[in-house]
User: What shape does this take?
Amino acid sequence: MREVSFGQYYPSNSAVHKMDARVKLLLTIAFIVMVFLVKSLYAYIAIGVFILLTTLVSRVPVLKVLKSIKAIIFIVVIMSIINLFANAEGKVLCSWWIFTITDGGIITAVNLALRLIFLVMGTSLLTYTTTPMELTDGMESLMYPLKLIKVPTHDIAIIMSIALRFIPILMEEVDKIMMAQKARGACFDRGGLLQRAKALLPVLIPLFVSAFRRADELALALDARCYNATPNRTKYKKATLAIRDLIATLITGIFIVLVVAINNNFWGLY
Assistant: This one.
């Protein structure tokens, strides 16, 4: 739990860190859409190479990005197993009792696993290279058209930013509570699934109490600093587009076109 990457920021002086948060958000959304559209193994390899190169350029340790996958390993395994047996399309490779494995089921399971892994790695790079305040300002700026229909965009952006930042804090709190409970003789890794679920009750109750306490302290801190979401708020740092943002957009656009071509076997390589 100490290695949860969501909401964590890795300080560096790389070109990716200096990019405009709005550009990074838009490029991340485009990346996510692309990941969920491709189906070719070669396209997934190209996406993996792109993530690796982006990680190297951002100077974020590769192990940190890879460790972000640990948080979803259980979900990836469960969803892959479900899709492996639920998809009955294609040639039957193995059949036993009510379980049937087909080549279509294997392809679907692999596609789902790779999509989830690349999704987490891509969003982890976003949070590693962008501060929570930059994310808040970027989301608020991108949601500006919604102000025309009286949508409180600033409130939504600050809520999303706080929720993102609280993920690693709450995970650290869970780790502390579990260590304290283990010191008192609690056991979380023995027995069946139902017994393990019951053993987590002494963790969930203090966690909820701690979360509400932190939320109350944050509200008091905001109120003590006269924070409000009025439309005439000024910003200490104003986001401006630079040449590096244009270059990053062009490179990402070329990469997306390349991945689409590989996915559709444009050159007839396979």
Summary: The mean pLDDT is 82. The beta strands are 92-96, 99-102. The chain has two domains: 1-152+240-270, 168-228. The longest strand covers residues 92-96.
